[in-house]
User: Which sequence fits this backbone?
């Protein structure tokens, strides 16, 4: 984890420079861990000052915890800002300043709290017509060794398009389906919410539907365009995903988005909603399609699993698994997607409890739009967008990936087009 000065976004070095070099162009490289100037004091600091740094540098996260400086995640790497280390009193003061009394009571009772926070624009930007809010953050407050800590995730104020995110164009086609279940899966921080927001925005822009989202908390704020879109937040607008999902079926929806399928009842209701003619989007914290199906089935008792397999096989449209890798050159990260389409062969594997055969079916299903995680990693490497080291670190089968890179490999695009030479 690097120690960096609080320079604005334009002052950070390009990734092609040595990782220990920071500051303005022409400045001499500094040893990692050495800070510039005396650390800034935290005594009277408002959280907004740190959040403006996150926005200026286009970071993804800010971490606050006792006995550590403020820590940002920039292009996937943790970096310490040049401030003093937090005391327990400072983290509590800074966080309690931005939440309501009801939230404080809830946090002290449950020891965790999810909420969203709108970072106000400075007065000079508001005078320029920039609006009252500069950025929004998803926040999780928690207890860490009896002290208050928090993680802030930056949410773009503008919803990016599928093209801007470098996502497969197939996602737009999937979002145009009239009914069924689409799952977007991946580990925490893999961009699931952003991918879903882009798909929902595509529908909202181009089609006249009633869309209901159930989120914890609301991340991207949608406006009514061609569609009518209602966004419900756990805690403020509903008590649970299952309650909101059950009620939504009586609210004339065409499309439902479930922020996370956390329990048996929510999963059952999501499948039932898809079965009754709605298009349902949902997320899971799983790494691939086969694991996602197993996770859903295993939530249910053995006596119900056969029925759930049949329901899932009949109503599943696609599982899109995602992870983010650093770009080989330049700032930012690249989404890597495994896409499984529920073809008749895939549906049969689900019904017969042969999910272990799904990876092979994905590898050979390129004509249906399917691609495995390793095939996608191979394609992105061959286009020069990611490094070989990162590809091998994140792949499912390193030896198989090496063979695909050396030989071209089955499935996927596999040719070095549109992105320059592979980067090692």
Assistant:
């Amino acid at each position: 984890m690097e120690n960096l000065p609080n320079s604005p976004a334009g002052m950070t070095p390009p990734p092609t420079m040595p990782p220990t070099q920071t500051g303005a162009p022409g400045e001499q490289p500094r040893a990692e861990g050495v800070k510039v100037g005396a650390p800034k004091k935290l005594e009277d600091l408002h959280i907004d000052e740190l959040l403006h740094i996150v926005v200026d540098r286009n970071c993804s996260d800010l971490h606050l915890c006792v006995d550590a400086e403020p820590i940002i995640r920039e292009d996937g790497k943790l970096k310490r800002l040049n401030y003093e280390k937090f005391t327990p009193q400072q983290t509590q003061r800074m966080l309690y300043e931005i939440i309501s009394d009801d939230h404080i009571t809830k946090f002290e009772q449950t020891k965790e709290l999810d909420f969203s926070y709108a970072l106000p624009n400075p007065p000079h930007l508001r005078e320029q017509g920039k609006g009252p809010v500069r950025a929004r953050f998803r926040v999780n407050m928690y207890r860490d060794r009896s002290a208050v800590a928090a993680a802030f995730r930056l949410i773009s104020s503008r919803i990016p398009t599928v093209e801007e995110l470098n996502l497969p164009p197939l996602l737009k086609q999937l979002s145009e389906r009239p009914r069924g279940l689409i799952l977007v899966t991946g580990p925490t921080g893999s961009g699931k919410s952003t991918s879903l927001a882009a798909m929902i925005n595509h529908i909202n822009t181009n089609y006249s539907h009633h869309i209901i989202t159930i989120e914890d908390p609301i991340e991207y704020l949608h406006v009514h365009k061609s569609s009518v879109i209602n966004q419900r937040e756990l805690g403020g607008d509903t008590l649970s995903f299952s309650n909101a999902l059950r009620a939504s079926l009586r609210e004339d929806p065409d499309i439902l988005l479930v922020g996370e399928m956390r329990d048996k009842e929510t999963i059952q209701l999501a499948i039932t909603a898809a079965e009754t003619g709605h298009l349902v989007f949902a997320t899971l914290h799983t790494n691939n399609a086969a694991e996602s199906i197993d996770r859903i089935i295993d939530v249910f008792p053995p006596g119900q699993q056969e029925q759930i397999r049949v329901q899932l096989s009949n109503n599943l449209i696609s599982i899109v698994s995602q992870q983010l890798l650093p770009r080989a050159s330049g700032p930012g990260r690249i989404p890597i997607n495994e896409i499984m389409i529920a073809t008749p062969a895939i549906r049969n594997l689900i019904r017969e409890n042969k999910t272990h055969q799904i990876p092979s079916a994905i590898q050979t299903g390129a004509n249906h739009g399917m691609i495995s995680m390793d095939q996608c990693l191979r394609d992105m490497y061959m286009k020069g967008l990611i490094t070989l080291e990162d590809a091998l670190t994140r792949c499912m089968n390193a030896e198989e990936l090496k063979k695909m890179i050396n030989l071209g490999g089955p499935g996927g695009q596999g040719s070095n087009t549109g992105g320059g030479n592979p980067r090692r």
The chain has 15 helices and 14 strands. Residues 192-206 form the longest helix (15 residues). The CA atoms of residues 325 and 334 lie 5 Å apart.
